[in-house]
Amino acid sequence: NLPDFDFDLNLQVSGFKVNVPGKPTIEVSGSKMNARAKDLISQAPRGSTVQIFDINAKISGNSSYLLKQVSPVFVELTN
Questions:
Q1: Is the pTM of this model over 0.85?
Q2: Which ranges carry the Gliding motility-associated protein GldM C-terminal domain (predicted)?
Q3: Is the CB of residue 20 less than 8 Å from the CB of residue 42?
């Protein structure tokens, strides 16, 4: 569910890519970080920005409709 959205829209993520500056991009299948992506993030220095992009998502209950473009997510590592 999306908070403050006009109606409930359940999404199902089927894959995405993770990038840390200076490292090769990792492709993830499914909706959760795999061991390779977690390892990549753990190697990133504090202050790095992790980019999650090319997010493939579908509306739950309507697997035939693939959302055309899901905005990338940027996370700055502070710890």
A1: no
A2: 2-77
A3: no
